[in-house]
From TrEMBL:
Pfam families: Methyltransf_21. GO terms for molecular function: methyltransferase activity. This is FkbM family methyltransferase. It comes from Candidatus Gallibacteroides avistercoris. The keyword Methyltransferase applies. The keyword Methyltransferase applies. Gene3D superfamilies: Vaccinia Virus protein VP39. InterPro entries: FkbM_mtfrase, SAM-dependent_MTases_sf. Keywords: Methyltransferase, Transferase. Residues 197-262 form the Methyltransferase FkbM domain.
Length: 292
């Protein structure tokens, strides 16, 4: 399992490999609709039910997903470093060396859908935001889009990204803010060995008060290795992905509550079938927002 998580974590962001199969998409959509048809639906489930009755299956079964299309994305080349980038909210967001335009367009489209204000995958909302006093740990930063949106409005950002392919791109993206960025090329887990490190080890003697974590199914191990850090009074917010494993929601919720946090889910559901063979439940909560 550790080797699987490390392979997925290296991708930096999941691209829903299972959705490449039209037959799998159709079957999952049919099963979701059948389940919801006989269920006593909550208002949030009713939204998904109404959408899927009229639309094909998509990761985010909501109208906002249609606002973003790969064909609308413009990719630019930086002659100074040979990397390609897109403009994201008036800032350059670089991608890995060797990525073609089509791959970048698809990736950026997926990222914009993830972080739309109505997305269940969004790490912030009106009541849960990064501030000028925030010292942010962005764990599983990948291309760094979340940190890029926060960099001018916070005190400092620690970027944890184990994939060496992203390091060059991250250095290029955050070159205008070098003094506010610390880049850590390590996996974050519950052990310290080789390329893995715990948050308790890394932040011994360092401050952090806001954690964002999306580590492809290793979130529970990250929290296990952060028992001292997450109990610090000054650490007041954690946004953590809760959809990779079927029981992530309940497991992570319990871990956060036991550390004194009050967790809540972002609004709505994502469609996620697991890694490889589809695994129920297909409708999963996206992110837990927890604060003290």
């Amino acid at each position: 399992m550790v080797s699987l998580i490390k392979r997925l974590y290296h991708k930096g962001w999941w691209q829903w490999q299972l959705f490449k199969s039209a037959s799998v998409r159709k079957r999952m959509r049919r099963e979701i609709l059948n389940d919801l048809a006989v269920a006593r639906r909550s208002p949030e489930e009713e939204e998904v039910f109404a959408f899927l009755q009229k639309n094909p299956l998509t990761v985010f079964p909501y109208p906002f997903a249609a606002l973003y299309r790969p064909s609308d994305v413009k990719v630019y080349a930086d002659k100074s470093n040979g990397l390609k980038f897109v403009w994201h909210k008036q800032k350059r967001l670089y991608f890995q060396r060797g990525w073609g335009d089509d791959r970048i367009k698809r990736a950026y489209t997926a990222l914009c859908r993830e972080q739309h204000k109505d997305s269940p995958h969004c790490y912030t909302d009106a009541r849960f935001a990064v501030s000028a006093e925030s010292i942010l740990a962005d764990i599983g930063s990948a291309e760094g889009i979340f940190a890029l949106e926060q960099v001018e409005g916070c005190q400092h950002i620690y970027l944890f990204e184990p994939d060496p392919g992203w390091i060059e791109a991250l250095n290029a993206t955050f070159s205008p803010w070098k003094e506010k960025i610390t880049l850590v090329n390590r996996f974050v887990s519950d052990v310290n060995d080789g390329d893995r490190i715990t948050l308790d080890t890394y932040f011994a003697g360092r401050e952090v008060n806001f954690i964002k974590a999306d580590v492809e199914g290793a979130e529970r191990f990250l929290l296990k290795g952060a028992q001292a850090v997450i109990r610090r009074p000054q650490l007041h917010r954690i946004a953590i992905a809760a959809y990779h494993r079927p029981d992530d929601g309940s497991v992570l919720w319990q871990q956060l509550e036991s550390a004194g946090f009050k967790p809540r889910y972002t609004h709505g559901f994502m469609v996620f079938g697991g890694f490889g063979r589809p695994e129920r439940p297909y409708l999963r909560r996206g992110v837990i927002l927890a604060e003290k």
